[in-house]
Design a protein that fits this description.
With 403 residues, the protein is an alpha+beta fold. The chain is 17% helix and 40% strand. Helix 2 runs parallel beside helix 4 and helix 3 runs antiparallel to helix 4.
């Protein structure tokens, strides 16, 4: 397997919570321009009580600034950091490592000292039977005739419906596991789960990440080879799946499956896609589908053709994932509505295709620049947030206003 780079998302923003009475105010005691960050670590697990004696870390990360402070929570879980100098080029936040799970809050110090913040942590469990998959979506996006490979994109939405965090044990089978086709390569993984290191395991890959309560997405993409004109695609679901969707354009191949319904045709833009779907797969289920009528390359094409079009190694998974989500959600929306085919159109209503392409290209170029060290992490994170937010807004606009 080629080099794997995990683009772990930064700590999620959570709302700052003020308590009013009882919180000490030290702003006036600090030097002019300094900030004070006060807060409390609370448990989201019923009956857990106060979180006392836990280490809280203050982070300041910038181009030339990497500072950390530590504080210990008191008997009621409270902590304070004082004398913090505001720097607009620095990303700030607090984090707590609690029973193997990492929790945190990013903070904006641009105006003044923020209101008291709350960091919610959860008791840990290693029982993976509490995890479920609410949806698994697969897009067979592109076929390369010369190399006899298919580019696949997957989004898996994992749900932890409890008030405890799943923290995997040391054994490989306790990690979050995802299946891949045989000989899959060029794997890229993107997820908001923290500490999500990627490990190769039998028939796929695993993540070392813990899973706090709520829903979390894991997006991954890869190339897999085929021979002749057919490929059998098998997928296992160790956590089950409430819904499974497979989408492919006809110029990639023809989909068929014994376990999934369809295919149903959906038109998006100027392309026709096939949609297979199924629901309520119990843990340990395994499904398969065939991709038929794949193109075969001649000997001359295999030796002399330079690969053109979309090169996966230059395509940011986050951009591709948004495109995939647009295709799948739009297809399912059409299916439920049972209306004539719609198409996104440039200009007027719907998604501006030129703008979408430009944003995806800029995201891909940004990923390249970051990997090459041409931009700092702070610049990279801020620019990526801006671009992906714009791309998501376009997607929502296109879905809300089908032409």
């Amino acid at each position: 397997m080629s080099k794997v780079r995990v683009m772990a998302a930064s700590l999620a923003l959570v709302g700052a919570v003020g308590w009013g009475v009882g919180m000490p105010v030290a702003y006036a005691q600090e030097p002019e321009g300094a900030r004070v960050v006060e807060g409390r670590v609370v448990s989201g697990t019923a009956g857990a009580g106060d979180i006392a004696g836990v280490t809280v870390v203050w982070h300041e990360e910038g181009d030339n600034r990497h500072e950390h402070q530590q504080a210990t929570t008191d008997s009621e879980g409270r902590f304070t950091f004082g004398g913090i100098k505001f720097d607009p080029g620095v990303i700030c936040g607090v984090s707590v490592d609690y029973q193997g799970g990492l929790y945190g809050v990013d903070l904006d110090l641009s105006g003044a000292s923020p209101p008291p913040v709350s960091v919610t942590v959860y008791e840990a469990t290693d029982a993976d039977d509490l995890l479920t998959v609410t949806s698994a979506s697969i897009l067979l996006a592109q076929v390369d005739k010369a190399t006899q490979t298919v580019l696949a994109l997957e989004i898996v939405r994992i749900n932890n419906p409890t008030d405890m965090t799943y923290v995997p044990g040391p054994e490989p089978m306790s990690l979050l596991r995802f299946g891949l086709p045989p000989e899959a390569r060029d794997l890229r993984v993107d997820t908001g789960l923290t500490r999500a290191d990627v490990l190769q395991v039998d028939r796929g890959f695993a993540l070392t990440a813990s899973v706090p309560p709520g829903q979390h997405e894991v997006l991954y993409a890869y190339n897999f080879p085929y021979s002749g004109t057919e490929a059998v695609f098998a997928r296992s679901f160790p956590y089950g799946a409430a819904s499974v969707r497979v989408l492919a354009p006809y110029d990639v191949g023809r989909l068929t499956s014994q376990e999934l319904e369809g295919p149903e045709d959906v038109n998006i833009g100027e392309r026709t896609y096939q949609l297979l779907s199924g629901s309520e797969f119990p843990p340990g289920s395994r499904i398969s589908f065939d991709l038929l009528d794949l193109p075969e390359a001649s000997v001359g094409e295999r030796l002399g053709r330079r690969i053109e079009g979309l090169r996966f190694e230059y395509a940011a998974p986050v951009g591709l994932g948004l495109m995939m989500a647009v295709l799948i959600v739009y297809a399912l929306w059409r299916r439920r509505a049972a209306r004539p085919a719609y198409a996104f159109r440039a200009g007027g209503t719907g998604m501006p295709e030129g703008e979408q392409t430009r944003l995806v290209r800029e995201i891909a170029e940004l990923e390249d620049s970051f990997e090459d060290g041409a931009v700092s992490e702070v610049q990279y994170r801020r620019r990526r947030e801006t671009l992906t937010a714009r791309l998501a807004a376009l997607a929502r606009s296109g879905l809300a206003n089908p032409g």
